[in-house]
């Protein structure tokens, strides 16, 4: 099994910054992506960013491009989401997820989430 544990959420004023972390443990994979998603109350889950664990290549949603940055630390098996210039509309529960590229399923493994609240 795989365990994904997020941390780093909290309450911040608009324009502020937070860094989320997600550490994986358990089963290992040869090729996989680590992604961040978010879900605000009453809204559907939204893709935020993803990183290829082996190559380090990244992709960010347009809504966060230029403000958020996904990165990883191989030795710690941790993926980060640096969030700058936060806006009230960034308020959501943030989840990290793992996509095993050897299967047809997308993002099979999920963390429990961490709440980010941005006040205006």
Account of the protein in words:
The chain is an all-beta fold. 0% of the residues lie in helices and 55% in strands. It has no helices and eleven strands. Strands 2, 4, 5, 6, 9, 10 and 11 form a seven-stranded mixed beta sheet that branches. Strands 1-3-8-7 form a four-stranded antiparallel beta sheet, with no helix packed on it. The mean pLDDT is 96.
Number of helices: 0
How many strands appear in the DSSP assignment? 11
Poorly predicted sequence stretches spanning 5 or more consecutive residues: none
Order of helices and strands: EEEEEEEEEEE
How many strands, what sense, and barrel or not for the largest sheet? 7 strands, mixed
* Whole-number mean pLDDT: 96
By secondary-structure content and strand pairing, the structural class works out as: mainly beta
Radius of gyration: 14 Å
Q: Which strand-content bin applies to the residues?
A: over 45%
Q: How helix-rich are the residues, as a percent range?
A: under 10%
Bulk shape: globular
N-C termini distance: 40 Å
């Amino acid at each position: 099994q795989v365990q994904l544990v997020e941390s780093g959420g909290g309450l911040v004023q608009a324009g502020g910054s937070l860094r989320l972390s997600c550490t994986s443990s358990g089963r290992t994979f040869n090729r996989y992506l680590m992604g961040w998603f978010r879900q605000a109350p009453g809204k559907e889950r939204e893709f935020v960013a993803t990183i290829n664990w082996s190559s380090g290549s990244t992709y960010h949603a347009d809504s966060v491009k230029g403000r958020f940055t996904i990165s990883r630390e191989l030795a710690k098996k941790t993926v980060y989401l640096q969030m700058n210039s936060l806006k009230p509309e960034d308020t959501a529960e943030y989840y990290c997820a793992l996509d095993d590229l050897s299967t047809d399923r997308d993002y099979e493994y999920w963390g429990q989430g961490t709440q980010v609240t941005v006040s205006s």
